[in-house]
Amino acid sequence: MLNLSKKILVAIDGSPQSDKAAEEAIRLARASGTRFKSKVYAILVLPGAREPSFTDFFPSPPATERSDWEEKCKRIFYVVEKAAAEAEVPLNVEVVYGDAAEEILAFSEQEAIDVIVIGSSGTGRVKRAFLGSVSTKVSLNARCSVYIVR
């Protein structure tokens, strides 16, 4: 059976590329129309683990527990929340800890995501050659379609 409503995952990090990806994800969701409501999941992956490990000599509190988190969170999710509200598209916001590519892939499988929208790499050529970009890792390993926005 053809499913016209889609689950769309957009990776957010506050960069201009992720803002473009957020707008594109909302545009894709809006294109499904009012009869077949698509849902957008915005995911922010923070580095490290939520709980400090025994190897951390001076553990710092997680980013979500710092005093300036609310302000940062509003800035990071501003574009996607505004676009979703204007287009009347359902939006779920998720904040997770870990490796960005791994967490995006795990979330997409867990929620049975139909398409991942991600901004193009913001890293330089040398860094990308050694470490690879998140968008490249996601596009090579995802089990669903991946839309890379430039």
Short description:
This protein has 150 residues and is α/β, with parallel strands linked by helices.
Distance, first to last CA: 33 Å
Q: Could you describe the largest sheet, including whether it forms a barrel? A: 5 strands, parallel
Radius of gyration: 16 Å
Report strand %: 15-25%
- Per the CATH scheme, the topology name is Rossmann fold
Number of helices: 5
The CATH C-level name is: Alpha Beta
The tally of domains stands at 1
Fill in the keyword field for this structure.
150 residues; alpha/beta; Rossmann fold; five-stranded parallel sheet; 5 helices; 5 strands; 41% helix
Question: What features would you describe in this structure?
Answer:
- By secondary structure, the chain is of the alpha/beta class.
- The protein has one domain: Rossmann fold (3-Layer(aba) Sandwich).
- The chain has five helices and five strands.
- Helix 1 packs parallel to helix 2 and helix 3 (100-110) runs parallel beside helix 5.
- The model has no long low-confidence stretch (mean pLDDT 83).
Write the layout of secondary structure elements.
Layout: E1 7-12, H1 16-31, E2 39-46, H2 69-87, E3 91-97, H3 100-110, E4 115-119, H4 125-131, H5 134-141, E5 145-149
Parallel strand pairs: 1-2, 1-4, 2-3, 4-5
